[in-house]
Amino acid sequence: MIEKILPSRVAVAEAFSDLPDAVLLPGEQELTSGFVEKRRREFATTRHCARRALGSLGIAPGPILKGERGAPLWPENTVGSLTHCTGYRAAAVAHRQAALTIGIDAEENAPLPGDVHNSIALATEQRRERELRLEHPRIHWDRLLFSAKEAVYKAWFPLTRRWLGFEEADIELRLDGSFTAQLLAPDLQPAPGAGIPEIPAAFHGRWLAGEGLLLTAIVIEGTPDVRGLSGG
């Protein structure tokens, strides 16, 4: 499903329920030592999806551990992103020459709690949401906005190694299935080794609604030309 909003150079694997053959590899087991069983199965299935996606790139299966701020640690010369929500788990990966960073997110198509919405949405974003809701009331635009912000952060962090607050990205969702995130962070400098000369002022992505889910994705192409931004 999520492959519809990702370019073909990105390998994808997804599951709509936890898989009985999903196992945790050494190192991953320690990461889940305090998890309840439901969370452990979810974690295992998401890692299983990641290994399937990496396998399609010709990369042997191995543990996918956590690094700084819990970001997944990918095999050398690969990039990727993981997501999970009720009824859905997915991984998207690519060779580093094909993509500098990937951010994906999945959420249920359900309203956000009001207090959460107010804490993550700028006034400009809330205004746009009201307009979009008039066009398509069956889409929960507040939840879609949250998903897009999560995808932005997942794409941002590997390039900068710094936190990005919800208020530091002004996201414009569009009816055509695209969105733009204007980055409001004061420092747009890439981290050493990010492979990009500067962080662009905006990230561009795509979204999809279906099967009770809201999916968002951002891919920054593996090229030194920072104009090469794509969600598809």
Automatic annotation (TrEMBL):
InterPro entries attached to this UniProt entry: 4-PPantetheinyl_Trfase_dom (IPR008278), 4-PPantetheinyl_Trfase_dom_sf (IPR037143), 4PPT_N (IPR041354), Enbac_synth_compD-like (IPR003542)
Q: Domain 4'-phosphopantetheinyl transferase: where?
A: 102-187
Instruction: Pinpoint the 4'-phosphopantetheinyl transferase N-terminal domain residues.
Output: 28-94
Q: What is this protein called?
A: 4'-phosphopantetheinyl transferase
Source taxonomy:
Bacteria, Bacillati, Actinomycetota, Actinomycetes, Kitasatosporales
Assigned keywords, A-Z: Transferase
List the molecular function annotations (GO) for this entry.
Answer: transferase activity
Q: State whether keyword Transferase applies.
A: yes
Q: Which Pfam families match?
A: 4PPT_N, ACPS
